[in-house]
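Notes, p. 3: input format for complexes.
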Amino acid sequence: MNQEPIYEGKAKKIFTTQNPDELLVYFKDDATAFNGVKKGTIVNKGMLNNKISTFFFDLLGKNGIPHHFIRMLNDREMLVKKLDILMVEVVVRNIAAGSLAKRIGWEEGRKLPCTVVEMYYKNDELGDPLINAYHIKALNLATDEQIRIMETYALKINDILTDYLKNKKLALIDFKLEFGIHKGEVLLGDEISPDTCRFWDTETGEKLDKDRFRRDLGDVEDAYEEVLFRLTGETVK
Ligand code: C5P
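Output follows (237 residues plus cytidine-5'-monophosphate):
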């Protein structure tokens, strides 16, 4: 790829294609945490996340969730529909962990009595603060209808993924989604991978996600490999 990316994020580069409605996403091995304060590389992460995201977009599409994914192009690249990204990150939580555990003073691993949906302002400078529907309206980040759609899809995605992953002996602790507008329609965008979800082994409780990098737990690549293997039976080594 000789072309310059139109956008380079922490984990991905985005390129234009000959079709103005489509973009190419390149998955990098770079890993960051704590809003870019911790930086590193996870060997093969780009490949693993491309394949894991491809798997999840396919699964969600088959279950009625409209998304930006068109097809995987090669090990590190996928073709997607171009979105006007809504500057809101939607987090869904089943078990208290990470920032929620800290915020409400619960020990990590305690089951939430009901699913919790949170919205964050996608703004690196501000460190992606937690916001609610009023803030989203006041900041003009999304309409009431778009907020309702994001919330509905987020809960449906949680049901689909939780059910599917149970059979793979993976507990879906929490995850982050991003949405965008394509031809007037709200579509699921970004990626779904161990970078954006917490997966715990249902039997051992072992963390199989980016917390291994964030918390220096070791065996980071192996964890991502394990997730791909459980989903597809595939390995990239
Ligand atoms: O850090 P926190 O507990 O709020 O993260 C909740 C979920 O959202 C985790 O699965 C985490 O991987 C994901 N997340 C993300 N990108 C962010 C913040 C959180 O993918 N910027």
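Residues 84-219 form a domain with the D-amino Acid Aminotransferase; Chain A, domain 1 fold (CATH 3.30.470.20).
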